[in-house]
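Our platform keeps sequence and structure together, in a single record for each protein. Such a record has a labelled line for the sequence and another for the backbone structure tokens. This encoding replaces a full spatial description with a residue-level series of whole-number codes. Below, we set out a record of this kind in full and without editing:
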Amino acid sequence: MQSKFVVDATDVDASFRIRDYLHKILLPIFKEHRSVVFICIGTDRSTGDALGPLVGEKLKYLPRNDVYIYGNLENPVHAKNIEDILVEINTKLPNAYIVAIDACLGALENVGKIFISEKPIYPGMAVNKKLPPVGDLSIVGIVNISGSLEFMVLQNTRLHTVMKLADSISIGISHCILKCIGKKKNIINATIEGIINTN
């Protein structure tokens, strides 16, 4: 399996490609009866940094069979509380497989793309904050271009770009989890309806 997966959020099959890639990684984790924790990093106080909380918000209807979601619009995971959140997870779920989701700045040609890698995220790098690495797997959405004044760039990011990324990531994750745990069709429909209703 490739160590890095890339997809453009505007591709019509983006969420399905994310589903299939994550399924290959997460199915063996569930078979080991390990919990899977999604940490959706960011804050709703900055458009560009709201990707994580938006994904967490859209996953609120996800069935909780060994699946845990940290971070949404009401209770974001950000620089000031992420270390406490990690301590809580390591205490309650010491053998959990952690998937970290965050926004990132990058090259112009990568804006709107989603990168999935089997390595941790280093949150806060765009704003020069030193925080601990997070995750066994990282899902990163490129929301804007990197360069100077990156804090201002995040503040002035288009919400449309962030929402498109959040939709593709959240639907891909939801479909993957439902496929892994074998939920019935009516629960799948209820979950998808919940995601659509948050748009």
